[in-house]
Amino acid sequence: MMRLARVMDEVGIFFSPHNPSGPVCHAVSLQVSAAVTRPHSLEVQFGETPVVGSLSDRGLQQVTSGEMVVSGSPGIGMGLCGKQLSACRSSQWTMSRAG
After folding, report:
1. What are the distances in angstroms from CA 72 to CA 25, 61, 76, 77, 89?
2. 96: Cβ–Cβ under 8 A, 6 or more apart, which residues?
3. How far is CA 28 from CA 18, 21, 37, 42, 87, in A?
4. Backbone φ, ψ for residue 82 (5° rounding)
5. Residues 5 and 36: beta-carbon distance below 8 Å
6. What whole-number distance in Å separates Cα of residue 99 and Cα of residue 97?
7. 26 sits in which H/E element
8. Neighbouring residues of 13: CB distance < 8 A, sequence distance ≥ 6
9. What DSSP element (H or E) covers 84?
10. Is 64 helix (H, G, I), strand (E, B) or coil?
11. 43-96 per-position pLDDT tens digit
12. Is the separation of the CB atoms in 56 and 80 below 8 Å?
């Protein structure tokens, strides 16, 4: 992502990562967005999956007035919640198609 962001900066294009994959992708994408030269926006989930926020041991960084605070914790700023991961392994997930 950093290499792509550098190339985009060189040609004058803003960087805006797609971020639909859960708390780890959320934390990494936020860290990368904070580190690049020309960030534009960061896509985030809002209620797309029932457990995404509870999988992180610190919760997800929340959007407030269009901004998120980058965690000061080591690494990507979060860890996974073992208890919630165990519950997900034993759950059955169903998906419905709209339309």
Report:
1. 17, 11, 9, 6, 30
2. none
3. 12, 11, 16, 11, 24
4. -60, -40
5. yes
6. 6
7. helix 23-35
8. 38
9. helix 82-89
10. strand
11. 887 766 667 777 777 767 778 888 888 888 888 888 888 777 777 766 565 655
12. yes
